[in-house]
Design goal:
globular, alpha/beta, single chain, six-stranded mixed β-sheet, 15% strand, Rossmann fold
């Protein structure tokens, strides 16, 4: 029995707009972010999908995106599990800093390494590898079994927590994942085989707008 896994990065947050490193900080969605989440909901509604359960992080930008999508597909009261295992990557000492200011302080190359490398964390924070180390076990224990049982599962989370999942699902190398960005509010629909590998993947929107 094939299940469905839908991944959605939250809509634009107030700190995305201000070009700040966010991580585990908790800004809300902007007006643009609300529109992006609503557009994602409409794209999913057009597919006729009916979810069995939803997962999100404990950060408001993902939680609101999740609820907007559930409202949009006509399932506002669907069981939703909130867990910090799905939180954004922790940016440590960079959290709250303007990205341009960080480049002035530490240099363009160093900030680029912290942002885009696979396994080099910023001071006091997590690398993408570290993020995956908490996302993957949670996925394997809590999310994947439901998909393999034939359920349709929504996961509304963050750029890096979802990139770590996409890395596994799409079998991307460490080099390939560093070049991948996910657009805000754009659902990615996976159909999984019984062995947990991907049968099909559909992106319901424009990933070229990713940042």
């Amino acid at each position: 029995m094939s299940g469905t896994l839908v991944l959605v990065r939250h809509g634009q947050s107030e700190w995305n707009l201000k070009n700040l490193f966010t991580g585990w900080k908790n800004p809300d969605l902007t007006e643009q972010g609300l529109i992006e989440a609503t557009d994602g909901a409409e794209a999913l509604k057009q597919t006729g999908i009916h979810f069995d359960i939803a997962f999100t992080s404990v950060l408001v930008r993902a939680e609101r995106t999740c609820q907007i999508i559930l409202d949009g597909v006509g399932q506002p009261d669907l069981e939703t599990i909130h867990d910090q295992a799905l939180n954004e990557r922790d940016y440590g000492d960079l959290a709250g800093l303007n990205k341009d200011d960080a480049r002035k302080k530490w240099g363009e190359e160093q900030v680029h390494i912290w942002r885009r490398s696979y396994d080099i964390p910023p001071p006091g924070g997590e690398s993408l590898k570290d993020t995956g180390a908490r996302v993957w076990p949670y996925y394997m224990m809590e999310i994947l079994p439901r998909v393999l049982a034939g359920q349709k599962v929504l996961v509304a989370a963050h750029g890096n927590s979802l990139r770590s999942l996409v890395m596994v699902l799409d079998r991307l190398s460490e080099a390939e994942i560093t070049g991948l960005n996910l657009a805000t509010g754009v659902p990615i629909v996976y159909q999984l085989k019984a062995d947990s590998t991907v049968a099909s993947k559909q992106v319901l929107g424009d990933m070229s707008k990713a940042h």
